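Need tokens for this chain, all 449 residues.
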Amino acid sequence: MRVGGKKYNKFISIFALILAVVFLFALLFGCSNVDEPPEYENPPEQSGPSEDDPPETDDPPEEDPPETDNPPVDNPPVDNPPAEELPDDVYAVCDGVTAEYMGLPFESGEAYVHANRTSLTGTGHDYQPLTIYWKESVAPYTVEFAEAEDFSDAESFVTSETHLTPGVLIPERGYNVRITDGAGEVVGTKQFVTESGVRWITVRRSRGGSGASNVRDLGGMAAGDGRLSYGKIFRGSKLIPSSSQTAGGYEYSCGILSERLGIKTEIDLCGARDDGGQTSSPIDGCAYVKAPITGYTSIFSSDVYADSVYYDKSTPESIAKIFALLADESNYPVYFHCRVGKDRTGTLAYLIGAVLGVSYEDLTRDFELSSLTKAGRAERSMSFTYYDHGNHRQGSEDNAWEKMHSAMMSAYSGGGSLRTAAENYLETFCHVPREQIQSFRSIMISGAE
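Here are the structure tokens for all 449 residues:
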């Protein structure tokens, strides 16, 4: 008796065939390469990363903490206005209005037009916005700024507030900051770099407050293959109040010039009509030099510029006195000014920059920066009107700045550069010895010939 012999064998054969097909299918389609794990749209959680090949994440390792909008309080932020957010601890030393003007093409960059668009309203943009904040602790606080990591060159500020606006930082410098509280505990540190830009000096307690204005460092401008040194020569407005102004604001300004900039010599370009009776410097320990000049085309005699009706022979004498002073490094740092730091001050800044090799374009930009301050209008194409209180504005309907430059080039360049023209003017008209010019250049430009 067979018990399902043929049917059973047939069943076994069919079953074996099915197994063979399943096995073959598994070989062809059901396995993946162990060296290349399958990709997941959402990778599964792992118990821990491999030490040999740690997984990439959005969070950097602990030794390099992530940048956040709100850094921890023991690492105080450097604050700029919201419109000036800068990445990677690089911060601006001038405000957005100044930066925008400096970035405009020279041909279309007149500062007065730019200032009008930004509603200047008399407050001025001659300040540094960068501010340091830290967590409240035991007052007073000592805030140190240093380029050296060991703080050997630190400049210290003392305040009872939990924030500080230094107002005197130098562009394109790396700074280390350390905040120490009244108990001697370090409550914050920071490292950052300042952007390139104009080095305004903050000399008033508030933007619209009383005090000096239009104060800036001539350093940083390109001069041939070099740059003018920072911290040597500063330009600005008068340092004494008029009868209608508050003395306290000017005292504060002079404190900044003395304590933070270390000014040793004040050069007053005002004449007897508008010098306010000043006979000495209000800056502690500072020498006072009276050197009145006329401005713009009035620095030339009528032999050079026929319409130079306000020329005064004291002008070349004063210029010679100024350059003799600038040739002696023991007189530095120097602060020079007229009444508002624009016209006569702008004229001397032109001569200083020109003889050092600064381009006409850069000198014009510096001149026009006064338009962004309380000094008011100053631009290359402006027609000036003469005022009796000072022989520093040249003639009605006269384009003073550009005509000064044209006269300089026509009379003294000999077909050469602006630097050549300025050298010839100083040597032949003002009788400044060439040795003094060379000494001045070596002081202001590293490696100058």
